[in-house]
Amino acid sequence: MTWWWGGLGLGYTAEAVLAEGSVADLIVVEYLAPVIEWHETGILPMGTRLPSDPRCRLVAGDFFAMAQGEGFDPERPARQFDAILADIDHAPDHLLDARSDRFYQVEGLRSLKRHLKPGGIFGLWSNEVTDQRFLDRLGAAFPQAWAEPVTFDNPLTGRPFTQTVYLARTEVA
Asked: Is the pLDDT at 169 greater than 90, yes or no?
């Protein structure tokens, strides 16, 4: 399976993807080049595990521009993936940069769908509880769309905290 991940950060999610036995190829796109450099030089807790894994390629780029354009693999424009996962903004309506708003609309989600293989999955992490308005937009762009709330005990507040993972699947050929 070929995966694409947007939003490298400390790399723990990318590492979990690589731990899945069926993953043959993972491209991780990160907007901030210094974050990639942290991984390449090994100054983060996981050292150089990601850039050292032959299945993993770290790419500096703008997820939102790539989703609207030729795709996520600069070496193979228009390449399709089994899964595209994103963890960039806080939530679909709580953005780090207002320029990404178009992506979270129906047309932007349809543009992303072009980069998935038949039966491919799109996953989006959100720091908020399920937003039905976004789930409706996701459902207008994909034939299957659903939300998985994730509740955990927050040790800082001493109370449960709920986030959401949105999922969508393309048509099966």
From this structure: yes
Provide the residue type at 44 as one letter.
L
- Per-residue burial over 131-147, b if 16 or more Cβ lie within 10 Å, else e, is beebbebbeebbeebeb
Q: Quick check: 72 and 29 in contact, CB under 8 A?
A: yes
Contact 8, 39 (CB under 8 A): yes
Quote the pTM value: 0.89
Q: List, for residues 78-105, the tens digit of each pLDDT value.
A: 899 999 998 887 778 877 777 788 899 9
Measured CA to CA, the distance from residue 16 to residue 33 in angstroms comes to 22
- Structural class in CATH, domain 2-169: alpha beta
Domain ranges of the chain: 2-169
